[in-house]
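Sequence and structure are kept together here, with a separate record for every protein. An example record follows, reproduced without changes.
>
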Amino acid sequence: MTFSLAIVGRPNVGKSTLFNRLVGRRLALVDDQPGVTRDLREGEARLGDLRFTVIDTAGLENATDDSLPARMRRLTERAVDMADICLFLVDARAGILPDDEIFAEILRKRSAHVIVAANKAEGSAADAGVIEAYGLGLGEPIRLSAEHGEGMNELYSILLPLSDAFAARAEADAPETDVVVSDEDGDDIEAGPRVPTLDKPLQVAVVGRPNAGKSTLINAIIGEDRLLTGPEAGITRDAISVTTDWGGVPTRIFDTAGMRRRAKVQEKLEKLSVSDGIRAVKFAEVVIVLLDAAIPFETQDLKIADLAEREGRAVVVAVNKWDVENEKQDKLKWLREQFELALPQLRGAPLVTVSARTGKGLDKLQAAVMQAYDVWNRRVSTGQLNRWLDGMIQRHPPPAPQGRRIKLRYMTQAKTRPPGFVVMCSHPDKLPESYSRYLVNGLREDFDMPGTPIRLMMRGQGDKNPYKGRRKKNAGALKKHLGSLQAKKT
């Protein structure tokens, strides 16, 4: 990526639609109502042979107080300062409004490279708006249609010379590095769980109910106000990812929209936000379920944690706003008891207390995330598993429905991430769920796999005997052979 491009403009001019067009996927939420985007979203854009970072921003509002629109504006201004190029998007059908002229003046002062694009410019109805865009004094406007993909060639022709200049600058500023391809003895390093790298960082999703403090927590982790926060519930709408070095581990953290009970989710936009959060859980490797210390383990909290477990993700439970809790010891004891009762399927999962506002407990949270990730990747040898299975059967034999005992013959680990095991047995359909839970709990305890989802599959071998029928077949062949000999003699 040689340069970064920030898409800025008033609300509802088509910034997120253009962002999705450039990254080639529907990453940003798009809706007819203005003000859908609130946070900064980054993506890897492709335009012809150009590769660059594109930033989707909140709509610029003419507000300077401490309101939500004003905080969104300050976040967008920060993106303008960060980006190499600003693409100023105006609505060609609506024409140039007074706010457009105010923001043009801001961009003229804060950005060295500004490109004006008149969006929604398909058809003759947009001609007047395109002409008006010349009056902004930022150069000749590009005629675009983000929805239909028109004007991309013109945008490419303007970005190409700027890209060459930024590529030359990046090459001149790049430090010399020594790359080590092997150790001193030339031996290969033993393969193990995937080690997070800059190219493939550890994927962590932070989920929870609205106003639990998810965005504040991520800002505390990365050490800057990257995500929009405030006292209002439901500020975050998109699942925004932020890449950082967390405790020496390259990590991509996904901030998600607060998930309310389905009965309360009526608006289309909130449904899209929740779907975006669920998709982030599916892409994550570790899921941090963030609870509010004042009202922990609400029904929705339990459903969110159960969702992460059903998706097979490593789970860490974090209790936020711990700095305002008075009876810490008693509350922590009660939390652990409630956790064991409410979420038995995640028994032993890390539970840590944090304060996103003060940053206290973040080191413990990072250690818990790495512990959960390590367990999620754990592998047990087949020999160990079968010796363990024999002991479990002797301690508690499987039931004998209708007088026929179920035989557990063989066990192996089929996968990791999460750990998945296969048991070959007779009559798997008759083995009760309670016995499977007995085996899963034993795996957790004996192989130190607390909290992680464990998949156990019972597979039947039937009563197939490889030697069954062979004697009869051999006897028939022998009889046929002796008959042929007798015929030759006669």
Remarks:
- The mean pLDDT is 80.
